[in-house]
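Blinded run. Sample ID left blank on purpose so nobody reads anything into the name before looking at the predicted structure. Input follows.
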Amino acid sequence: MSESFLISQTTLDGLPAAIDEACNRMEKHYAEGRYSKVTVHRHWSKHNPIISGKIARPTAYRWYLRRELLKLAQRGAEIEITPSQMRIDLQSPSLLSAIDESNFDQTLKKVFLFGPERVELSLERLEHYTGTRAEDFQRYVLLTNYQMHMDAFRLLHPNAIASVRSDVQMPTLHSPEADNNGVTIVNIGVGPSNAKNFTDHLAVLRPDAMLMVGHCAGIRNHQEIGDFVLATSYMRDDLVLDDALPRSVPVTPSFLLNRNLARVLEERCLPYRMGVVYTTADRNWELVISRKMSDLKASRSIGVDMESATVAANGFRYRIPSASLLCISDKPLHGSPKLPKSANTFYLSTKSQHLQIAEEAIHLTRAAYPEGLPTTDLRAMDEPLLGCPTPKERL
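Blinded prediction complete.
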């Protein structure tokens, strides 16, 4: 078994090389059939001086491990890498108890939220759904439920890495850059169940941002088909995360992402409106409009979709900045329901523009925050950096 590796009293000039070696050690442990344990001694912390977490398949998010551990080391933390328990057999009956999040306290988690068994399973699921390697996922992830957006992305990035199979459930394209600083787009399919499923697993890769690029129904008189909608908050009628995150918890998109989306829209002189997006699990919500109208009026919603609130809620749970860039495709309350002929014409005329706006906003965000978006607004009151501390460590 490999011996422990310690980063302590290292000169600043030598830190990047030391962090790279730490990542190499973690990858070596994994290749030998073990997880790694990362223990961080933070002398400056009064409440959580010693924190730790266990790492599975570090190649999948090496860029992230390197970035976060380097920040800690530069501040003077002592970091120890040691081999931990044997990797779990994903076909073992003990897997379910190891990944059970039923009693997890979501308010205590940050950065490495997941045990190594959960990471193992989620990476396998991601590769199954997308037909791409987990290592190819980039730091900025666009979510859509339209093949036309995939086609538009392919035109913008002709050399993108694509799904290796044509029958994958969630077709995916990666436009890679150094340190995974590029953009990934995934066709997650329609509905909140798919949105939850995918973002549950994506969260283990710790992306810097998730952006839902989709369509919505316009609610207000003065909105027009083709206008854009930026969510400022969400009405959660998606149902799928009610047990994990009470509806009483306010969920909002990233202000910084929204600010850059608004900037791009304004520079292009495109009409948009900011407000509440109502996310429903019922694709045919118009058929029970008398029951929905009270919620739409009370929330003062400006658009209805089926994924945005789910993505935002999971972003909140797992500390991933998120936002929504929606385009109005129909206005059922005003005699303009979504019909094949008009919808297809609208889709063809807007798909490239929609993707370009999203990518321009990501470019602005990446330039302003090369080390990742600040997530202070997503942190809890008592939250360590790596893993969940024991009650003794929290004192």
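Unblinding after everyone has recorded impressions. The chain is about 35% helix and 20% strand.
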